[in-house]
Amino acid sequence: MSQRTTLIIGGTKGIGSVIKQVFIERGDKVYTASRSDLPDANHFKINLPDRIDIDKAIKFNYLVFAHRYRGTQWNDEFDITVKAVDNVINHLKDSFVDEASIVILGSNAGHFVLEEQSAAYHATRAALDGLTKYYAATLGPNGIRCNTVLPTTIIKPENQNFFVKDNDVRKMIERITPLRRMGNATDIANVVDYLCSVKSSFITGQSFFVDGGLSIIGQESIARELLTQKHPHAR
User: Fold this and answer.
1) DSSP string covering 2-65, please?
2) Domain spans of the chain, in order of start
3) What number is the average pLDDT over the span 156-176?
4) What is the pLDDT of residues 3-22, one digit of tens each?
5) Contact assessment for residue 96 and residue 137, using Cβ atoms and an 8 Å cutoff
6) Disulfide engineering: 4 pairs with which of 61, 92, 206, 220, CB 3.0-4.6 Å?
7) Distant-in-sequence, close-in-space partners of 195: CB < 8 Å, separation ≥ 6
């Protein structure tokens, strides 16, 4: 099998950097793209949403979006989270091999309200689900799949010193999660690995919760668990 080629937008930090390592270990030639100017021949310096200096002559098997806007401006949130994905896909739509896969890292905030996040954050994550379905349908005839991964709160390189084992927030999350642990960046990278492989060749237009089962638990059940108020008919 010839070497596969992957491009990770935002592949220099956070979950993106872990995805990069997983893909390198599996044998891909990995390119990254971000605002950083790095001394790496396989890195593109870009300025989303409009400056996309990525070589269109390269043929990509896989495109992963792992970037994130961290400001507070509505327009910038939309431009970098949603418009940038649309612009990059259109920039590279003729640069994919015959069978390719696009994976977008979204958030469960597209489906649930997280009080610590803004309205713009929620709206843009919901928009990513719609964009995923649109490109799954329109690029499908070209053999290009498109899916979204929806993590919950994840332990990643930037916060691992906070989420130590005796951290109260971590204990709370583990208590209400069916698998009784927090997920980590490798858990997310492994799902992306699967979606960027022939093993998922008939999967497209889907959004995958990666949350240890937290999204299947009712809100009342979570509240009762935290308040130790069991339902009278609970087993």
Assistant:
1) PPPEEEEETTTSHHHHHHHHHHHHTT-EEEEEESS--S-TTEEE-BTTTB----TTSPEEEEEE
2) 5-159+183-214
3) 95
4) 999 999 999 999 999 999 99
5) no
6) 61
7) 101, 103, 145, 147, 149, 203, 208
What CATH number labels 5-159+183-214? 3.40.50.720
57: Cβ contacts below 8 Å, ≥ 6 apart: 95
Burial track 158-181 (b if 16+ CB lie within 10 A, e otherwise): eeeeebeeebeebeebeebbeeee
* pLDDT at residue 209, rounded to an integer: 97
Quick: pLDDT tens for 187-200. Answer: 999 999 999 999 99
Q: Which of 31, 62, 69, 121 is catalytic?
A: 121
Q: Please indicate whether residue 62 is annotated as part of the active site.
A: no
Mean pLDDT of 79-93: 97
